[in-house]
Amino acid sequence: MSNATIPATIKPDEAAHFGALAAEWWDPQGSSAMLHRLNPVRLGFIREAVDAHWRADPKSVKPLAGKRALDAGCGAGLLCEPLARLGAEVTGVDAAKENIEAARSHAEGIGLAIDYRQGEIGALGLADFDLVCALEVIEHVADKPAFIAALAAAMKPDGLMVLSTPNRTVRSRLLLVGAAERFGAVPRGTHHWDEFVTPDELGELLAAAGLDMGEPKGIAWSPTKGLHLSRDMSLNFIVTIRKS
């Protein structure tokens, strides 16, 4: 397939928005502070999913040793680096050149070998990954079916995919878009509520690509627990996916 026939999933305005934040991506008090708080919750889910899928020893410090992991929409590498520490050979892909430059610089600075690439995910020849992740990404792409198809094409037949995204609910509109952006928890323009997908809609997108969605878990917030895994999916949810 030539690049001319590959559906575009990148929105130039979204790439520009996140590329402009690249310099602060690794600052836990900066514009990506919410991602820093969200990352341990997502990583806990991924670790549990990895252990279950490959029947790994939950006490192992490198459960992904010998496996290849792809992070689609990797930003400056907040997920890629922990995956590398878990033993994976990691590739990170992002739409913004500035993010890839920041990711490479940070990984090199701490001695992690991660393959970072910028560009259209379906045009990069990605294949044979054991683990494919796309966290808080699908709500930012131009063509959701094409993006899901590209993720599926990159994953091995017996591989594991993990995807997370905000849910399109009244509560998410009030809190993730309204309050969070108004009070500076996330930069203005980060979220577009009408691009959020519900669990049912995601299930339909995945089924069309020959993928089976597991039971989603909510990522909720409370004053006592902060961000945490929950049955409440009204704000955000995370899910495992396998090929049918």
Topology:
Blueprint: H1 12-19, H2 33-54, E1 68-72, H3 80-85, E2 89-94, H4 97-109, E3 115-118, E4 129-135, H5 144-154, E5 155-166, H6 170-182, H7 199-208, E6 211-213, E7 217-222, E8 226-230, E9 236-243
Parallel strand pairs: 1-2, 1-4, 2-3, 4-5
Antiparallel strand pairs: 5-9, 6-9, 7-8, 7-9
Task: Describe the fold and architecture.
- The protein has 244 residues and is α/β, with parallel strands linked by helices.
- It has one domain: 3-Layer(aba) Sandwich (Rossmann fold).
- 34% of the residues lie in helices and 23% in strands.
- It has helices at 12-19, 33-54, 80-85, 97-109, 144-154, 170-182, 199-208; strands spanning 68-72, 89-94, 115-118, 129-135, 155-166, 211-213, 217-222, 226-230, 236-243.
- It is globular and about 45 Å long.
- The two termini are 24 Å apart.
- The model has no long low-confidence stretch (mean pLDDT 92).
Oligomer: single chain
Low-confidence stretches: none
Please give the number of β-strands.
9
Q: Helix share of residues?
A: 25-40%
Radius of gyration, taken over Cα atoms and rounded to an integer in Å: 17 Å
The CATH topology is: Rossmann fold
- Based on CA inertia axes, which overall geometry fits? globular
Average pLDDT figure: 92
* Superfamily (CATH H level) name: Vaccinia Virus protein VP39
Largest sheet: 9 strands, mixed
CATH architecture, by name, is 3-Layer(aba) Sandwich
- SS strand fraction: 15-25%
End-to-end span in angstroms?
24 Å
DSSP helix count? 7
Order of helices and strands: HHEHEHEEHEHHEEEE
**CATH C-level class:** Alpha Beta
